[in-house]
């Protein structure tokens, strides 16, 4: 409209002429928006976590984990979903379980302290890893693990996923948006984007298998 103007109230102070960028959404009533920024950012965080669970493409390395003297367990990184490799003093440890150790030697927890040879995750509590046998001094660990996405996403935050895979996260977000109760609900579009997301996760897993399988040419 020619000559029309509007004013906005911001939560934070800004200098004159500073560009302001933010997502906006249509409203059905002044106090009843179809979507809000906080709501959509929540969808993004959930969709990103869903994709990383369905297709763990992102791998991180941590050298900040260590097991204390004579201790059996240590906490995994907070953003770890599943450890893929655990090493001590640059020597990879064999994955085992407390159940297996119980079956071969019920006194394994009393074994003389020495350099660890294996690690386990069962019966250690949430987000923990254990080593066997224990060591008399602090044992630094190098952990390669599948990384989970952030629980909260901001407007200026980046993504840990490579850009080509973000289209599938977008499909998951739109599935959530069109599944929400209200005037904007559209079951047909929700099913469409759910199918796009499912197909994208399947294709991404095929790509992940191709680059990680040592028997395939792409992995060489």
What's a concise summary of this model?
Helices cover 30% and strands 21% of the residues.
The portion of residues assigned to helices is 25-40%
Work out the number of β strands: 10
Strand order of the largest sheet: 3-10-5-6
General form:
elongated
From N to C, what is the helix and strand string?
A: EEHEEEEEHEEEHH
The class by helix and strand makeup works out as: alpha+beta
Strand portion, in percent?
A: 15-25%
What is the subunit arrangement here? Answer: single chain
Main sheet: strands, sense, barrel: 4 strands, antiparallel
Radius of gyration: 24 Å
The average pLDDT value, as a whole number, equals 86
Low-confidence stretches: none
Helical region count?
A: 4
Explain this structure.
The protein is an alpha+beta fold and 220 residues long. It has four helices and ten strands, in the order E-E-H-E-E-E-E-E-H-E-E-E-H-H. The strands form three sheets. The chain has a four-stranded antiparallel beta sheet, with no helix packed on it. Helix 1 packs across helix 3 (166-179) and helix 3 (166-179) runs antiparallel to helix 4 (187-212).
Indicate the topology.
Blueprint: E1 27-29, E2 32-33, H1 37-54, E3 59-67, E4 73-75, E5 80-88, E6 91-92, E7 94-95, H2 98-104, E8 118-120, E9 128-132, E10 139-147, H3 166-179, H4 187-212
Parallel strand pairs: 7-8
Antiparallel strand pairs: 1-2, 3-10, 4-9, 5-6, 5-10, 8-9
Helix pairs in contact: 1-3, 3-4
Short key terms for the protein model shown above:
30% helix; four-stranded antiparallel β-sheet; alpha+beta; 220 residues
